[in-house]
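Q: Could you fold this chain for me?
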Amino acid sequence: MIKKIFENWKKYLGEGKRIPLDKIRPTEELGYLRDRSPQEFEEVISDIEHSFEMGEEEPLDVIYVKSKDIYKIVDGHHRFHVASDWDLDDYPVIVIGVEDE
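A: Sure. Below is the predicted structure, expressed as C-alpha cells.
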C-alpha cells in the first residue's frame, strides 16, 4: 500500500499546478462552520477574500480520480467556495493522492 502511494506521488505530485475549477469537486458541505457560528464562517470567508485581493492563493489539497479525470478536495473547501464565487477559471492545487475509482 505504501509503495503504491509513493509511486502515485512520484507520478502526480509536483510543485503544484493550476486546475480548471470545473474539474475540481468538493467532498463535503460548507455548513460545518455556518452551523456552529455564522460569524466565524463569515470571518473565514472574509479572510480568504482578503488573501485573494492580496494575490495570495493557498493551494487546495486534492486527490486525482483518473477514471473521471477530476480532482476531489481533501482540504480547502472554503477557498474553493470563494474561488467559485469570484468566477476564477482555475486554482492552484497540490495532488496528494490518486484514485483509479
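A (continued): Strands lie at 17-20, 24-25, 60-65, 70-75, 90-99.
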